Amino acid sequence: MSDFVIIFTTASDVEARVVRGLLEAHGVMSFVSSEPRGVLPVSVGRFGEVRITVHAEEAIEARRIIESHRTELKGGEIVRLRDEFEPLQRTIGYRFRDRGLLEHALTHTSRANEDVSGGVRDNESMEFLGDALLGFVIADALFREFPESNEGEKSKTKATLVSTATLARQAERLSLGDHLLLGRGEEKTGGRRKQALLADGYEALLAAIYLDGGIEPARAFIMREFSPQLDEVHRHGISAQDYKSTLQEWLQSRDLPLPEYRLAGSLGPDHRKLFEIDVMVRGERVASGSGPSKKEAEQDAARATLDKLRGSP
Prior knowledge:
- The protein has about 325 residues and is of the alpha+beta class.
- Helices cover about 50% and strands about 15% of the residues.
- Strands 1, 2, 3 and 4 form a 4-stranded antiparallel sheet that branches.
- A hairpin with a 2-residue loop joins β8 and β9.
C-alpha cells in the first residue's frame, strides 16, 4: 500500500466532512490515519486539528480540487470552503457555536451504520431529548395561555401539536429533508420525504439548539415555530385541535353525511410504521393523511380534509 499524505487540516469537523465529500465526488478517497474524532472518520492532530489524508499519488489532485473550491476576496483574503449547513442556519434563525451538534442531529441511523470507522453517531438520542424538550415547552405554553382549560383538553391539544404529522410538516417548511445525512439505501427509497425521518430530524434539531445554546434559545425557537398553531387554538378554542370532531361538526352543520376513514396502506417496519388514511365523503375521497398510528393518521387526514373543504368556494 502506498504512503499517506496529509492534504488538509481544519479545526472544524463540519468543514472536514465537506472536504471529504468533495474529494469523494471527484473520485479521490480519503482515509483514517488514527482514531477518529467526533463524528468524522479522520484523524486528530497534536493541537486538535482535524487532518485528512490521501494516498501519496493522489495528493496533488486532492489539493487541486480543494483549492478550486476556495474563494478569494478583494484584498487577498481567502475564504474557507463553504459551510454546508449555512442555508439551514439562516432558515431556522439560529447560528451554532458547535456545528458538530447540528451535524449529529441530522445524521440518520442508516448513515451511521455505513461508516466503517465507528466514529459516526446517529441522532436517536437527540430525538429522545428533543421530544422531551418539545413536550415540556408546549405543555408550559398551554398551561400559561389556557389556564381555564381542563387537563384533558390541554393533553389532547398537546398530543396534536407534537404529533409526527405536525412535526413532519414543520420539517418540510424548513426543507429539513434536504439536509438529512442518510445512508445510500435510505436515500434511494426516498428517505428525505418520509414523515417519520423528518419528524425525528426535527426533534433532534431542537435538542441540538438546546445543547448548543441552552433552554432559552430552544424555547424561543419552538415558540416561534409553533406560533401559527397556537394562534389557531386561540381562534377556534383549545378543543378544536380534535380535527375529527371538528370535521364531523362541520359536515353535520351543512347536512352532509359523516366522513369515512379508510386505511390506504402502510409503510416501514413494525417498530416504525407509517399509516396512510383516506377520508371519504359520499363515497368520494376528499383528502388523505399519514401518521405513525392509525389515530394520528386519521387526525392528520381530518385536518387535511378541513383545509380543503374550508378553502372550497
